[in-house]
Write a structure and sequence with these properties.
The complex is a heterodimer. Chain A is mostly helical. Chain A contains three helices and no strands. In chain A, helix 1 packs across helix 2 and helix 1 crosses helix 3. Chain A is globular and about 25 Å long. The relative contact order of chain A is 0.21. Chain B is of the alpha/beta class. Chain B is 27% helix and 25% strand. Chain B is built from nine helices and 17 strands. In chain B, the strands form five sheets. A six-stranded mixed beta sheet of chain B has the order 6-5-7-8-2-17, sandwiched between helices. In chain B, helix 4 links the parallel strand 5 and strand 6. The two termini of chain B are 38 Å apart. The chains are: A mainly alpha, B alpha/beta. Chains A and B meet through helix 2 of A and helix 2, helix 6 and helix 7 of B.
């Protein structure tokens, strides 16, 4: 399940920013890489693809700081 | 701060749009978005089409044409105006206020009040509150509320966050004394400590415009702007709106003794479709009761956005029976304000292209 979430998250990031290089075996930093527009597009895509609802309060940089934090956040939303 | 107003009603609203339309597709090359990003931004953020004035066109140019058409069409006798309120962040001059420019160009009578208010996205709510207050004076029976902005002239060509959504427009709202009309509920709050979320740093007395203030700088997100340009911190504005606006609306409805479902329409300022969708979700407002797509068609026209929605998402026939409307604006200042009022029998709800 965790691996599945990670792959989906990477796919979503790449659908917004295809040029970002992500090594799924490491925790890739996203802070300073994603801007506020990227974050909005990623939220929209995650909601659409995973059927989750991301609350406005959850759209904060901390949840999008790295691949690991984003994966954990998405896992929380799916629970 | 909470208000109640009595004895006032909206008589008519006209939106004035510049005819010149710019599309995101035609400008996309100016930004470093990938084709995938551009496609998604168009869908999610409403980066699509917007109206902008031609070089040199000012707020008074849009507004004077608007008044002339209302007068020419027999919808408004300019002699009946007792007060003219102009709400803008982009005045024709630093001195005098744009209300005087409009007054002079239209040859309005001397026996009236002209007033300028520097407000942005809450400008329609603030302007209406001021109009309602003025109407408590026996000498003032009719107020013309003008909202106008040509912010496209302040946005840097390389500002990828703001430029694709900024639109220019003006609106003329005629507000009349109406002793029999119902109570209007309002509330407003400000937080001046957050002023740097939306500002133009140079051009006033603090930093005079100069060759240095015109030099562009690139920020961490790739936006290129000078001190003469509008700065909008998108994330700060988003967080402020999501934190402050929902409790404000809930408090307003409580004051009116109503719940979310009893309001006919929620007409909010139009920052972008994403933010409005999140606001609707948080408030539990059904999507069909909250128009969200103004930006996609005309751009974000600051304080004109609420009357722009009234004129483009509704028409005169919608107001043939009384409609309970919740209006809200939020932005520069920071300011957030809202009004709960019935609107009915409007004499005109129209769009003019100039």
């Amino acid at each position: 399940m965790e691996r599945h979430i990670k792959i989906r998250v990477i796919e979503v990031i790449h659908s917004v920013r295809p040029e970002i290089s992500i090594d799924s075996t490491k925790d890739t930093a996203l802070f300073g890489v994603l801007d506020s527009l990227d974050i909005i597009l990623i939220v929209e895509e995650l909601e659409k693809q995973l059927g989750i609802c991301i609350e406005a309060e959850q759209i904060v940089p901390e949840n999008f700081a790295s691949l690991q934090t984003l994966e954990a956040f998405v896992a929380d939303c799916l629970r | 701060m909470k208000f109640t107003f009595h004895g006032a009603r909206i008589h008519g609203v006209q939106l004035v749009l510049p005819a010149h339309e710019v599309s995101f597709d035609s400008e996309a090359g100016a930004y470093d978005f990938s084709p995938q990003q551009s496609a998604k931004l168009k869908l999610v953020m409403g980066y699509d089409r917007r109206r902008v004035v031609a070089e040199g066109v000012t707020c008074s140019d849009l507004v004077v044409q608007g008044f002339e058409h209302l007068s020419g069409d027999g919808l408004l006798d300019l002699e009946t105006l007792d007060a003219l309120i102009v709400v803008t962040q982009t005045p024709d001059y630093l001195i005098p206020g744009t209300s005087f420019v409009i007054h002079g160009r239209l040859g309005l009578r001397q026996d009236m009040l002209c007033l300028d208010i520097n407000q942005g996205c809450a400008g329609f709510v603030v302007g209406l509150m001021t109009a309602f207050s003025l109407l408590s004076q026996p000498a003032i029976r009719r107020v013309a509320l003008v909202n106008a902005d040509v912010v496209s002239r302040l946005v840097a060509p390389g500002d990828r966050n703001s430029r694709p959504i900024v639109g220019d427009a003006a609106s003329i709202t005629i507000v009349d004394a109406a002793p029999e009309s119902g109570v209007i509920y309002g509330n407003i709050k400000v937080d001046g400590a957050g002023l740097d979320a939306l500002m133009v740093p140079a051009g006033g007395m603090k930093i005079r415009p100069s060759p240095e203030t015109r030099i562009p700088h690139v920020d961490a997100n790739g936006n290129s702007r000078s001190l003469d340009n509008l700065v909008m911190k998108g994330d700060a504005v988003f967080n402020f709106v999501m934190k402050e606006v929902p409790p404000m609306i809930q408090s307003l409805l409580e004051d009116g003794g109503l719940n979310i479902s009893q309001v006919d329409s929620y007409v909010f300022h139009q920052p972008n479709p994403f933010m409005l969708r999140k606001l609707a979700e948080k408030l539990g407002v059904p999507k069909e009761k909250m128009p969200m797509d103004l930006v996609r068609h005309f751009g974000n026209s600051s304080g004109v956005s609420v009357p722009a929605v009234l004129c483009t998402s509704f028409d005169k026939s919608y107001f043939e029976r009384p409609r309970l409307m919740c209006l809200a604006g939020f932005g520069v200042g920071l300011t957030w304000g809202s009004l709960l009022m019935r609107m009915s029998d409007l004499s005109f709800v129209k769009v003019l292209e100039v």
